[in-house]
Amino acid sequence: MGLFNLSWIWSFFLSIFSSFTQDSCSHSSSSGSTSDLALSSIKSSALRDSDSVWQTIPRALGFQFHKKKLVLDLDETLISSSQKHCFRHDISVLVNLSGNHSMFYVRKRPHVDLFLEKVSEWFELVIFTASLSPYANAVIDQLDPKRRINRRYYRQSCTNRDGSYLKNLHTVCRDLSRVVIVDNSPVAFSLNKENGIAIPDYFGTNPDDESLLDLLPILEKVRDAEDVRTALVDHPNGVCGLKSPTPGIARRSNRS
Fold this sequence. Notes:
By secondary structure, this protein is α/β, with parallel strands linked by helices.
């Protein structure tokens, strides 16, 4: 069979396959579609070399539809930021907020690079932040240059309740047995507290912070659980449970 015919058949198969495997957790509010990028990669490979298609499938798709969702907060969870130039930082971003340009200096939480690398093997990664999207995107783009984070949700996806921004996990995934959230504010995930792990606040001042490393054994167990909520309840560091997180109120400024 010629390359053209094989490529056409394969493209047709992919369109059926994509429809069939459309994850019930997918929503249009994400910043980009991993599946669309994957299909584009596969089709391009088919046109270049039909024999390479079969090797491209698992690498391009990553079988994300089999993975549970790990939802991560941004500020005071993965990073800390300040507009003070004296703030010791790893990243600096210039952000346009409603026509006003502001510089933010960002300190990465210790071990965040290792953490993202590891959990991206286990979960589909989602950022859910109460920050405004211009700030969040600028930070995430530099925090995650390898694009391990699959989707992003911002303040507009939060529920504003008495000035607090709550994160309804149904926005991310309709099947709550397959989604877990890590946030420094238990208030932020109070609508789905059975799915939450509260991590201590990070303000950029503790170079010995190991909270992200402490999370790994919990998440390794959760990824294999039939229902993440059961795994979190059974775990000694389960819901709202890494050390002593600050209860906090999920109130945010322009940036977070």
